[in-house]
Design brief:
Two copies of one chain form a homodimer. By secondary structure, chain A is an alpha+beta fold. The first copy, chain A, has a domain of 156 residues: Electron Transport, Fmn-binding Protein, Chain A (Pnp Oxidase, Chain A, Roll). Chain A has five helices and twelve strands. In chain A, strands 1, 2, 3, 6, 7, 10 and 11 form a seven-stranded antiparallel beta sheet that branches. β11 of chain A pairs antiparallel with β11 of chain B.
């Protein structure tokens, strides 16, 4: 019953509402995580929840987040408390004939676990590389690499991609049978995060044009 | 010192890291909430955090969320536990000359508080109207209104917009002075959630074209 292509749902990661939208396939989870740019990271202190948006990177089955060692969030996470990391891609607005059946198309990932500090210098640099490449593939090789001081001033945490699930809604509205006769427009408004024309920094050195990976920037079909 | 145009920061809502990015102006908070489509709602049970993406609506200083009475999230929230509701708009990728100074432009809102069940039938209907109109202005008047059974089968919760803050980053990268000499492209890649061409439902009644509010759908400059 143990399929390595799938994660095993647990009490907290199993999709209970509308279970047919749940998905535990590793490749599906990878794809959503790789298309997303930010996660919402949740943790609790004395049952007081905090939900903070932050960037992330992925290397195989490790998710990396980073920040200043002074960050309240990171200082909390390094104590080993439970984390819930959620990534959501909004794909469309689902317009039904009744108010009740309006919905959204989306792909989301929820990961549960505890985060660890990445201490090994090589893994830390690799995490930061993955971090930059996750946001803008091709960028890392062109920019000034982190100095020793910058590396020391960056806290990198890893969260294992072990206890996780995807939840996905796609397709058309599902109306009550009787409502299909109504003279109301119904369907889907697709949504996508789209890059506009790059804005050069005012202090750019003369003659430098945006690289191809900036000019053609898109989140769709990454990798 | 009490300016009604501003929310008063509290221990948990005050922006501590990079405080100049914090903003407590009511109109700024409204605008971000009104442009957003989904929030990430955090709560904790025995210090186990959960972060769930969900849609929302706003009427003045109340945020509304809704769902099935069977939802684990809503069943937890109605017990009066603490909630952290976060809305994030990603506005751009900030490309610096060094890996270290890469950043993102964003506008986010974090709201703390406890949610209450909306029991009053009139307020509940008004919340659902706000909910639909928040996502697609103009939609509510055209669709079949909720039946008594649908209203009974929907749990609506309100969260007061009292303890909240915005955090905003805009503009160009901030590089170390020495790095401005590097021959590296730097600037901002603007990002925006854009609506594609509407996809009509396959069972649409003949002769129905998408309404203007669907054809011209945009999240920018809502209201």
């Amino acid at each position: 019953m143990n399929n390595p292509e799938n994660l095993t749902p647990t009490q907290r990661s199993q999709i209970k509402r509308v279970p047919q939208r749940g998905n535990y396939e590793r490749q599906v989870i990878y794809q959503i995580l790789d298309e997303g740019l930010i996660c919402h990271l949740g943790f609790a202190i004395d049952n007081q929840p905090f939900v903070i948006p932050t960037a992330y990177g992925r290397v195989e089955d490790q998710l990396y987040i980073h920040g200043s060692p002074a960050s309240r969030m990171l200082r909390s996470l390094i104590t080993g408390i439970e984390v819930c990391l959620t990534v959501t891609l909004l794909d469309g607005l689902v317009m039904a004939r009744s108010a009740f059946h309006h919905s959204m198309n989306y792909r989301s990932i929820v990961i549960f676990g505890t985060a660890s500090v990445v201490k090994d210098a090589e893994e830390k640099l690799e995490a930061l590389r993955a971090f930059t490449e996750h946001v803008v593939p091709g960028r890392w090789a062109e920019v000034r690499q982190p100095s020793r001081q910058e590396l020391q001033g960056t806290l990198v945490l890893s969260l294992p991609l072990a206890e996780a699930s995807a939840k996905i809604r796609t397709g058309a509205p599902l109306d009550d049978e009787i409502d299909y006769d109504l003279p109301v427009w119904a369907g889907v408004v697709p949504l996508q995060l789209v890059a506009g024309e790059a804005i050069a920094d005012s202090r750019l050195q003369p003659g430098i044009t945006p690289p191809t990976y900036i000019q053609n920037y898109t989140r769709v079909h990454v990798k």
